[in-house]
Design a protein that fits this description.
This protein has 15 helices and 14 strands. With 469 residues, it is α/β, with parallel strands linked by helices.
């Protein structure tokens, strides 16, 4: 009997030790347990809002539907409906070589990487990543967006999916009338705000500090960052922001619908043509019927369907463009980091410089950068994407180079570590460190991330580079 008691006691101690090592966390909706990989714990596919399906299609995200028992968060949730990534598209071979995940309107899931699960008093800084893809494609768990290296730097990293395309950005007069605030078309951004609120309310369970949240994103994700720091709905939840390849301040707003009323009427005409002339019919249609509506309309009428797929200045989520708000000093009064890649989509440097000088006038720092490392290729030059192309810096800012088939050198890893140091330092303190000075009128310099002619890491403050060296 004594031996049995000793054995039971030992077993209980072992189980208690395991529970402490990989604790069960309580978040909105129920309990979850993650997966341990060395010192980092990942929590994948955690719902942050109810599935926006059926009657919730084209509505603001609702509270998470509770579940029973402990959800083992060991796999990613579905991505939002989008066109499949096909061979021949250079971005397919670069970032989507593993094939597409499941696509579903039930897509509001997030992922967390941390070193301190269950340590509610740890107060690690938090970074919330918003993926790009032109508001019509992408997801928060692409191979380049691995959060493990961020967690190793003592930052809690969160990535997530949000509604895209016609499901995320459809303006329509019937939807505006239903909303209660006479607006429609910003459902994907409202998802992002729901994720931000979820992080604020639950991140302490992962060892994070709800009062130190940085948002960052690239391309359309950067455009989303600009929208969120310009929205009254985000309050004071955002403490810092990083804008990657999303432009700065210019006379032409990027990927913003400034006339949602006209866009809504144009969309209504297409939906009415298809017989979806009530909200009930619009929500009863299948995912594929709605997703393929624009193609069907063009095939049968020869006219392009005007179904908006970008954020709208709707008077509710956004009352003016980011450019107007930044010019007048009405965006969030926080530190910013902003930049682009050497061979980016369009000339972004001037707009970034304009933004930084506006922030200088507001008395807050803005740190500008250019990523100027042409990605290495194999001897056959088999990769279609050349130079420091749009999105190329993501392998470095996440230090996820091992997930790519590019022949990265040891110095590429040195460069990635330096960039990750800068990004995580900014998240922690509002200053990227590493000799990176804020852009000012008197010191109009960018941090140039690059290798020298000998292939050694040689990042330094300087003027922007406009062509391959």
């Amino acid at each position: 009997m004594k031996k049995i008691c000793v054995a039971l006691s030992s077993m209980l101690l072992i189980l208690a030790g395991c529970a402490e090592k990989n604790p069960v966390l309580t978040v909105a909706g129920g309990q979850i347990q993650g997966v341990q990989d060395g010192e980092v714990y990942s929590y994948l596919g955690v719902p942050y809002a109810a599935a926006p399906v059926g009657d919730l299609r084209w509505k603001e995200p609702q509270a998470v539907t509770p579940w029973e028992g402990v959800k083992v968060a060991d796999h990613f949730g579905p991505a939002a409906p989008q066109a499949p990534h096909t061979e021949g598209n250079p971005y397919t071979s670069e970032f989507f070589f593993n094939g597409d995940p499941e696509f579903s309107e039930d897509c509001l899931y997030l992922n967390v990487w941390t070193k301190a699960p269950g340590k509610t008093g740890k107060k690690l800084p938090v970074a919330l990543w918003i993926h790009g893809g032109g508001y019509t494609a992408g997801w928060g768990f692409e191979p380049e967006m691995d959060g493990k290296e961020w967690a190793k730097k003592d930052v809690v990293l969160v990535t997530f999916n949000y509604r895209l395309g016609v499901f995320g950005f459809l303006p329509h007069p019937l939807l505006a009338q239903e909303s209660g605030h006479n607006s429609s078309g910003n459902y994907g951004i409202l998802d992002q705000i729901a994720a931000l609120n979820w992080v604020h309310d639950n991140i302490a369970q992962f060892g994070g500090d709800p009062d130190n949240i940085t948002i960052f994103g690239q391309s359309a994700g950067a455009g989303s960052v600009k929208t969120l720091v310009n929205s009254p709905l985000t309050g004071n939840l955002i403490k810092k922001a990083i804008i990657q390849s999303g432009g700065g301040v210019s006379k032409t707003p990027m990927l913003v619908n400034t006339n949602p009323g006209a866009a809504g009427e144009a969309a209504k005409a297409v939906f009415d043509w298809a017989g979806y002339d009530t909200l009930e019919k619009m929500r009863a249609a299948s995912t594929s019927e709605i997703f393929n509506l624009a193609d069907r309309y063009f095939a049968e009428t020869g006219q392009r369907a005007r179904l908006s797929s970008s954020p709208s200045v709707d008077g509710y989520l956004m009352t003016e463009t980011f450019d107007a708000a930044a010019t007048e000093g009405r965006i969030k009064d926080i530190p910013y980091m902003i930049g682009f890649t050497m061979n980016d989509m369009g000339a972004l440097g001037n707009g970034i410089a304009n933004f930084c000088e506006l922030r200088e006038k507001a008395g807050k720092p803005a740190y500008a950068y250019e990523f100027a490392r042409p990605l290495p290729d194999d001897a056959a030059g088999s990769h279609k994407m050349k130079g420091a192309f749009h999105s190329s810096e993501l392998w470095y800012t996440f230090k996820s180079l091992a997930n790519s088939d590019r022949p990265f050198t040891e110095q590429d890893y040195v460069l990635a570590d330096k960039m990750l140091d800068c990004w995580t330092s900014f998240v922690k303190t509002g200053n990227p460190g590493n000799g990176w000075e804020a852009y000012t009128a008197a010191n109009p310099k960018f941090m140039i991330f690059k290798l020298d002619a000998s292939g050694n890491e040689a990042s330094a403050m300087g003027d922007t580079i406009t062509s391959l060296e």
